[in-house]
Amino acid sequence: MFFLDCFVLLFLSISISNFFLIRKPRNQEQQLLPSVGVLVPMRNEAENVAELVASLKAQRGLSRAHFYLLNDNSTDQTFQLLQASIGTDPRFTVINGSELAAGWLGKPFALQQLFTASEDEILITLDADVRLTPDAIASSVSLMLKSNLDFLSPYPKQFAASLSERLIQPLLQWSWFFTLPLRIAEGAPRTSMAVANGQFFIVKRSALIKINGFNAIKSEVIDDIALARELIGNKFRGGVADGSEVAHCRMYRNWRELRAGYGKSLWKAFPTPLTSIAVGIFLIATCIAPLCFGLMGNVWGWLGYFLVVLSRVITALR
Predict the structure, then answer these.
(1) What is the DSSP secondary-structure string of 241-277?
(2) Within 13 Å and on the Cβ side, how many CA atoms surround 132?
(3) Rounded to an integer, what distance in angstroms lies between the CA atom of residue 318 and that of residue 301?
(4) Is 311 helix (H, G, I), strand (E, B) or coil?
(5) Which of 126, 179, 230, 241 could bond to 23 as cystine, CB 3.0-4.6 Å?
(6) pLDDT tens digits, residue range 37-50?
(7) What is the C-alpha separation between 50 and 302, in angstroms, rounded?
């Protein structure tokens, strides 16, 4: 058990280093920026239209910004509400999406259409349920350029209200914060170290062109990680940032939505079956085993469990 505690302590040290070293866009970090295009795929997003458009209209610090919103064959009032909310603002372009092409999944196909419609040097993929502070885009793009990165994914603050959300949602962020030294991962050529969140993803247009746009991930369920892996595999540098001060999102609102969302993606979260087995063993060794040993009266078990909980607290504080 002592050696298991040492193993957990190693990963706790990664959490601590990430706590201090993770990049973080701040509202005052701005510079003269190239043209920025925001790509938003929307399918039956009527409930998000008003707040999304208001959030985009409020963006400042951008001399050349364009917002491309794709109505992906919605069956609700998404298109009508977009027209009403946008009005005559020339920065917005609304596109009616084509029927899904063979071999594609819905979101990558929508993003490819948006990519084709845009001409901007910096592109941002944004989910319709993400809310941004007025300086979110300018500060995040500035951070990416200042850091000499080709892509950056500012991880939004994840709101959780129901018990199921509070139990499950924080584990996603903890999983990479606890195991991956982020600054090392930014420049590492290994695709296995890719971390990203498609809710808010910034990438240079030149990098996307090099990988043939979203064609490279057209059948990927977890499109954000797949895109990051494709970029890293083509020698582009990037990673994840702490976007909690500039963006927030509530992905799911109840157990049914949460189960459906993770049910369709978890099986594709890891590149190989061997990786999945290794992750399972890791979770048992670092999270379950220490608690079991502790309940059996082993002091080292309680110490290991305390270290795991401490890593969760560190992640939550960040």
Answers:
(1) EEEEEEEEE---SSHHHHHHHHHTTGGGSSSSHHHHH
(2) 29
(3) 26
(4) helix
(5) 241
(6) 999 999 999 999 99
(7) 49
The residues with which 287 forms a beta bridge, in sequence order, are none
| Residue from 157, 128, 115, 124 nearest 143 by CA | 124
Structure tokens at 143: 């951070």
pTM over 0.90: no
294, two tokens:
């502790």
For residue 50, how far is the Cα from the chain centroid?
23
pLDDT tens string 262-278: 665 665 656 566 666 66
pLDDT for 240 equals: 96
Q: Which CA distances in Å does 147 have to 211, 231, 232, 239, 286?
A: 22, 17, 16, 11, 33
Q: Which CATH class is domain 22-268?
A: alpha beta
Q: Look at residue 287 and give its three-state secondary structure.
A: helix
- Residue 125 CA to residue 110 CA, distance in Å, equals 11
What digits encode the pLDDT tens for the residues 300-318? 666 666 666 666 666 666 6
Domain ranges of the chain: 2-15+273-317, 22-268
Could you read off the pLDDT of 91-113 as tens digits, one per residue?
999 999 999 999 999 999 999 99
